[in-house]
Design a protein that fits this description.
With about 350 residues, this protein is an alpha/beta fold. The protein has two domains: about 180 residues, Medium-chain alcohol dehydrogenases, catalytic domain (Quinone Oxidoreductase, Chain A, domain 1); about 140 residues, Rossmann fold, CATH 3.40.50.720. It has eleven helices and 18 strands. Strands 3, 4, 5, 9, 10, 17 and 18 form a seven-stranded mixed sheet that branches. It has a six-stranded parallel sheet with strand order 13-12-11-14-15-16, with helices on both faces.
Length: about 350
């Protein structure tokens, strides 16, 4: 089969590799669509260094079951499916507590996090554990369905962890793919004033189109002052979905008494300062969110199936697998939203 193989940083090569075979409890999925995540881009460009080579990146797939191994009972050949990239054993203490993303035997297909990283979905086929598959609703396109994982992360971080309630004033710092999903979930959940913050005017224009009540470019103004001009009493919820440490520092500067804030986008090990006495008296509540769970995936499927979230609205570019080099180039530009690979 054809696959994009990362041989070393900045060496993503298209080549023929053996078509994988599913083992017990596994399914072979023919990939129809795969989202291009910033995590993939960081691995390709060497911004993220915890990578073992060779690697087939891509961890946001949807496709069709081609074959399956023994002990697969709930899927058959021809089923249209969505794949959760984070695999789990289901038997360890964390899994049995419902925290599958803490699984002691976790693996990921093409992604980041566990030490067990398996071939991903920038390829014509991939193997996935059957317990990570979800039936794709017929009314949801493959391009939309492959975005279930980032949408599920937005739901998990904003609704399950930061407990957004109707009328809350929300600030989302960073409106790339995941930030736009956070914005759409917040809008659907009844956010009051909804402020998008980004250094890309293209991203801010998209955020405005998707329901942001205000947009702020911190390069062009004092970000904190502008936000407090809009929200004199400060935000109820702040989501950092950008990645740079500057975004985290801006988030901390926005806190007032009772703010819930979620470190969502930054994955690099960088430091910021907190005034412990101030934090005590503010009672600002910090959350963070990584990965996804079967619950969050199912919630995301429901959001799309019921027409509450239209994931295709954030797609700006589509490329064939043979055009993967062009996709990488676009990922490095500011004038894009979500990029999709169609093997």
């Amino acid at each position: 089969m054809l696959a994009a193989v990362l041989k070393d940083f900045d060496q993503l090569i298209l080549e023929d590799v053996p078509k994988p075979r599913p083992g017990p409890g596994e399914a072979l999925v023919r990939i129809k669509s795969c989202g291009f995540c910033q995590t993939d881009y960081k691995a390709i460009k060497g911004i993220r260094r915890n990578v073992s080579f060779p690697l087939i990146p891509g961890h946001e797939p949807a496709g069709i079951v081609e074959a399956f191994g023994p002990y697969v009972d709930h899927f058959k050949k021809g089923d249209e499916v969505i794949v959760q990239p984070s695999g789990y054993c289901g038997m360890c203490r964390n899994c049995r507590s419902g925290l599958t993303h803490y699984c002691e035997n976790a693996y990921t297909t093409g992604g980041d996090g566990p030490t067990d990283v398996r071939p991903g979905s920038f390829a014509e086929y991939m193997v996935a554990g059957a317990n990570t598959l979800f039936h794709k609703p017929k009314k949801v396109s493959f391009d939309a369905a492959c975005l279930t994982e980032p949408l599920s992360g937005a739901w998990k971080g904003l609704i399950q962890y930061s407990q957004l309630t109707i009328g809350d004033d929300v600030v989302i710092i960073g409106v790339g793919g995941i930030g736009l999903f956070c914005l759409m979930v917040a809008k659907a959940a009844g956010a009051g004033r909804l402020i998008a913050v980004d250094v890309s005017d293209h991203a801010l224009q998209t955020a405005k189109h998707l329901g942001a009540s205000h947009v702020v470019n911190p390069i062009k103004c004092d970000g904190r002052k502008r936000i407090y001009d809009i929200l004199p009493h400060g935000p109820d919820v702040v989501i950092e979905a950008a990645g740079p440490i500057e975004a985290v520092k801006l988030m901390v500067s926005l806190l007032r008494r009772g703010t819930r804030w979620n470190i969502f986008g930054i994955t690099t090990h960088e430091k910021f300062e907190l005034d412990s006495g101030l934090m005590h008296f503010l009672e600002a509540r910090m959350d963070s969110s990584f990965g996804t769970t079967p619950l969050a995936m199912q919630k995301a499927v429901h959001l799309m199936e019921r027409g509450i979230i239209d994931a295709e609205k954030i797609i700006s570019h589509r490329f064939k697998l043979t055009e993967i080099e062009k996709a990488v180039e676009i990922m490095g530009t500011p004038n894009r939203n979500k990029v999709i690979i169609n093997p």
